[in-house]
Amino acid sequence: MKIIGLTGGIGSGKTTVAKMFSDFGVPVYNSDVEAKKLTNTSQSIKKALTSLLGKEIYQEGVLDKKLLAGFIFNDSILLEKVNAIIHPEVADHFKQWAALQTFPYVLKEAAILYESGSYKQCDRVIMVTAPIEDRMRRVMDRDHISREEVKARMKNQWDDAKKMELADFIINNITLSDTQKQVEAIHYQLI
């Protein structure tokens, strides 16, 4: 079974593209969703984050995502430390999940696939792109945050041009119908 990485900058439409692949029966592992689950269920992650950021990072046993964002999105060193706590457990969880799949390939959706180095465990990588203004608008609407907050998150991700150099496939997510055609073409190449 092949492991296919699916990445793209914040607001590029990775989740939309992943859903299109799943419509073909492709198992999709959403690293961001699973990481959020693990931050609330893994005792080792909870202990390490509490040690690093203080007890107030958890409110009634649930990670305070807004407080965490305030800590990490303007402090790249702290962001690296938090990622070093969470990413190894997500990687182990992914391996266990992938071992249970029977489809010819699986998608590992991750916003920071390159930044985390996990692209090295992928057989191929699909990069999703979209115009920057579309991305900004999507994230502002989705997360109810300001333009400045979106920019702060974007600065913690590699530039699209850098990611595109390393990608095996590039999906330009501008219209849904065109994106669907690109997904279908890539799917049949991977099968």
Describe this structure in words.
With 191 residues, this protein is α/β, with parallel strands linked by helices. The chain has a single domain, classed as P-loop containing nucleotide triphosphate hydrolases (Rossmann fold, 3-Layer(aba) Sandwich). It has nine helices and seven strands; from the N terminus they run βαβααββααββαααβα. The protein has helices at 14-22, 31-41, 43-53, 65-72, 76-99, 132-143, 147-154, 160-166, 176-190, and strands at 2-8, 28-30, 58-59, 62-63, 105-109, 124-129, 169-172. The strands form two sheets. The protein has a five-stranded parallel beta sheet with strand order 2-5-1-6-7, with helices on both faces. It has a two-stranded antiparallel ribbon with strand order 3-4. Helix 2 (31-41) crosses helix 5 and helix 3 runs antiparallel to helix 5. The longest helix has 24 residues, at 76-99. It is globular, with a radius of gyration of 17 Å. 28% of the residues are buried. The mean pLDDT is 94.
Name its key features.
191 residues, alpha/beta, Rossmann fold, five-stranded parallel sheet, 7 strands, 15% strand, globular
Structural class by SSE content: alpha/beta
Strand content: 15-25%
Q: What's the CATH first level? A: Alpha Beta
Name given to the CATH architecture:
3-Layer(aba) Sandwich
Number of helices: 9
Structural domains: how many: 1
**CATH fold name:** Rossmann fold
> If strands are numbered along the chain, what order do they take across the biggest sheet?
2-5-1-6-7
Return the string of H and E elements: EHEHHEEHHEEHHHEH
CATH superfamily heading:
P-loop containing nucleotide triphosphate hydrolases
Terminal CA distance reads 10 Å
Please summarize the sheet with the most strands: 5 strands, parallel
Uncertain spans: none
Tally of DSSP β-strands: 7
Mean residue pLDDT: 94
Tell me, briefly, the overall form.
globular
- What gyration radius follows from the Cα positions, in whole Å? 17 Å
Portion in helices: 40-55%
